[in-house]
Amino acid sequence: MIYMDNAATTRPDRECLEKAQKYILDSFYNPSALYAEGYKINLEIQEAKKRILALIPGSGSFSITFTSCGTESDNQAIFCGGKRGNVVTTMGEHSAVYNSASELRNRGIEPRFAALNPDGSVNTEDLLSLVDDKTSLVSVIHVNNETGAINDIASIARKVKARNPHTLFHADGVQAFGKIPFSLTKDIDMYSLSAHKIGAMKGTGALIKRQDLVIKPYIYGGGQEKGLRSGTENVFGIKLLQFAAEKRYAHLQDNFRAVKAVREHLTGLLDKDLFEVVSGPDSSPYILCIIAKKVRGETILHEADDKGLIIGTGSACSSNDKKRYSRVILACGIDKDRADGILRLSFSPETTMQEAEKAAEILNETVSERIKHME
Question: Taking Cα atoms as reference points, which of 116, 82, 122 lies closest to residue 100?
């Protein structure tokens, strides 16, 4: 089976799992406990925070709060950062941000959504036009989870602060962390990430924020994570995130080049009469968004699965939505007929050239057969 839906989730890294398993089997103590074993586990969590932050250039003035997932991190940023006036975000956001921003309307805060460019990146001019003296928060996805478009969050954050220095800036970095090089700047206030996108486990995420930024907690209870995220910490998940992040960052540039080569090779093998490429040349190499001409993407997904290829049709979280067409894809200016054929292939450092060749063969064959069947 060829797995090319890594933007949805990645295979847990076996080496990292073996290193982290002691936090389930042996060092299972509650990190809030007063006895020595619990205190040592608490120190392990603090060590994980230091090591993860140390991987990101410019993170010296930032802190990290562990959460249950990227969605929770996004929710904390939106609901704890967008407290008044209006909140500006984009039509290209993951549902964790888009739906949270939409919910703000019910809380007396106006959500504003900036338009997208054809590749799925935000139209920066439109975004900035929505920022005014009442904007409490701007949230921009770092890497679009459906098209792979990369937003220059450092530049966008700087321009937002120039318009309103009191506006907080958040970026959803779930598809960027551990995959593309970036730095945290003084204009970025919060940054979300998820563990299971980089070879760690589902059930762990984090919200990185400026140390001097004061926000209220999103989940209340026992006061863990310095009161910002109550609930007994998932020590196994946290340490696995640390180990997986360290491994990814140790090979960040090499992985980037290797995955880019795989994506370019696969793209070149696709029949241009059968497929249209949506992802831009400067998008994240980890995501390839294409359109199967004249054939529904969902049909191709199931038939490719039967032939040994696992791919997606967009955001895995959005697949629970009954709407037929992707909000993000339509916002790119793609009409409904073409949007019906959307497919998303997403890669990991383990994806091989041989898998790319076989995937292209399966896709070309499947779409060609389907079109002949329809004629």
Answer: 82
- Which tokens go with 72? 């929770």
* Coil vs helix vs strand at 273: coil
The string of pLDDT tens digits covering residues 24-54 is 999 998 888 889 988 899 999 999 999 999 9
Closest alpha carbon to 344 in 292, 303, 270, 307? 292
pLDDT tens, residue by residue, 132-142 = 999 999 999 99
Q: Would strands 309-310 and 2-3 be described as parallel, antiparallel, or unpaired?
A: parallel
3-state helix, strand, coil in the chain (%, to 5): 40, 15, 40
Torsion of CA 42, 178, 176, 239, to 10 degrees: -20
Catalytically annotated residues: 317
Residues 6+ away with beta carbon under 8 Å from 90: 113, 114, 115, 116, 122, 127, 139, 140, 141
The whole-model pTM stands at 0.94
Position 37, amino acid? E
DSSP structure class, residue 230: -
